[in-house]
Every structure is written in C-alpha cells, then in structure tokens.
Amino acid sequence: MGKKSSAFSCRRCGHCCQGTGGIVLAAKDRARLAVHLGMSIDAFVAAHVSRRGGKFHLKTRDDGFCVFFDQGCSVHLARPDICRAWPYFRGNLLDASSWEMSHEYCPGINPDIPHAQFVRQGLEALLAQGLGAKDDSETPNALNLDGIATPP
Q1: In the chain, what are the domain boundaries?
Q2: Is the pTM of this model over 0.85?
Q3: More confident site: 14 or 33
Q4: CA–CA distance from 88 to each of 15, 94, 108, 122 (Å)?
Q5: Is residue 2 over pLDDT 80?
Q6: pLDDT of 76-111, one tens digit each?
Q7: Does an H or E element contain 105, and which?
Q8: Do the beta carbons of residue 88 and residue 125 sit within 8 Å?
Q9: If we measure between CA atoms, which residue out of 131, 122, 130 comes closest to residue 149?
Q10: What is the separation, in whole angstroms, between the first and last Cα of the chain?
Q11: Neighbours of 130 (CB within 10 A)
Q12: What CA–CA distances, in Å, run from 137 to 91, 96, 133, 140?
C-alpha cells in the first residue's frame, strides 16, 4: 500500500476562525499568547479575553472572526490548543455524523478517507502535539479524550 492519505490539510480558509466565543483558553494558552505578543498575562487577558461561565474565551471582532485573524492566523506559532487541535475535536472523533457535517464547513478535511482513519490520524496528531486530556477541568471539552479509543 502506498503513502497514507492525510485526513486533514489546512487550507487557511479561516472558517474555523469564526464563531463568537468558541475559542476557550487554558492557562497555558494565555501564557503562550502573552509571551508571543510581548505582553504580561494580565495585559493580554484585559485586551483580548472575555470571561463567561468561569472560562476564558478569546474575543472576536464584530464580523465574528477571532481578533487575531488577518488573512490567516497572525499568532499561528502561539495559537491556542483548541486551534492546534482542529478538526480533531471530541465530537468529530466520536461521531461519524459530526465528522461528515464538518466536511461542509472545512475544506481541509479529506472526505475520501473512512472515519476510522480520521480518528487514528487525529489521535496521533493530538498526542504528537501534547494535546487532549482525560479528566482535566482546564481543558476544553472538545479536547477531552475520555472514551475515545484508537480504531482497529
């Protein structure tokens, strides 16, 4: 068998950079972004973060895009874990229907591979980046890997 097909290849379309309040920031995200921007964590939070329901959310602009989207991610090297993980979110890994719906939203997801292959590659990608947690209250639910096993 030849080279395995990639489950995801980012097209930098920005679709995942839209959505008011969808980017939850863990403490390590806030620290990484603050350092990247040359700011203190408190200054970063004051300028770019809102708090809702006890969680820190990256602010969005009036057009719904992330404050750091400018024809692509202007903080790509320091982007939040939730952004690093896309499209390998819990719902897409657990549920083939969610994964299929995400094809309409994200042109970088390869529709020609089976869901099981997407899950295998997704778990590999998450673990390689040190992402995904089990029972960690700070981690956004989309990155919670409880109950997700590598398919046979």
Answers
A1: 17-78, 86-147
A2: yes
A3: 33
A4: 15, 10, 12, 5
A5: no
A6: 999 999 999 999 999 999 999 999 999 998 999 999
A7: helix 96-105
A8: yes
A9: 122
A10: 17
A11: 10
A12: 18, 26, 9, 8
